[in-house]
Amino acid sequence: MVDQIISYAYVMKANSAGIIYPSIRNEDAKLKPIGILDGYWANIFKYGFTIPQNVESYDEFVDQMKLVENELNMSNVLHL
Questions:
Q1: What single string gives the DSSP state of each residue in the chain?
Q2: Within 10 A of 44 (CB to CB), how many other CB atoms are there?
Q3: How many domains, the chain?
Q4: What is the end-to-end Cα distance of the chain in Å, rounded?
Q5: How confident is the model at residue 79 (pLDDT cuts 50, 70, 90)?
Q6: Which domain holds residue 65?
Q7: What is the pTM of this model?
Q8: Which of 26, 67, 79, 80 could crosslink 16 through cysteines, CB 3.0-4.6 Å?
């Protein structure tokens, strides 16, 4: 997976590249730097977004996921 991210960064001449993944751990819901590409200086990161766990219905799950999506958009991870 990291090889694909590195390839993407080189081919797209990106300043940053990373992976966004689902997680059930709240502590994963933040931007975590992995490193900087040698020779190209692109920032490589990972970001875990939380999946709602304690819901009573599908509708409640959908509502909570919308909040998670909004948090992801507000975090600027998608705009790095």
A1: -HHHHHHHHHHHT-SEEEEEEEES-GGGSSEEEEEE-TTT--EEEEEEEEPP-S-SSHHHHHHHHHHHHHHHHHTTGGG-
A2: 19
A3: 1
A4: 19
A5: low
A6: 2-79
A7: 0.68
A8: 80
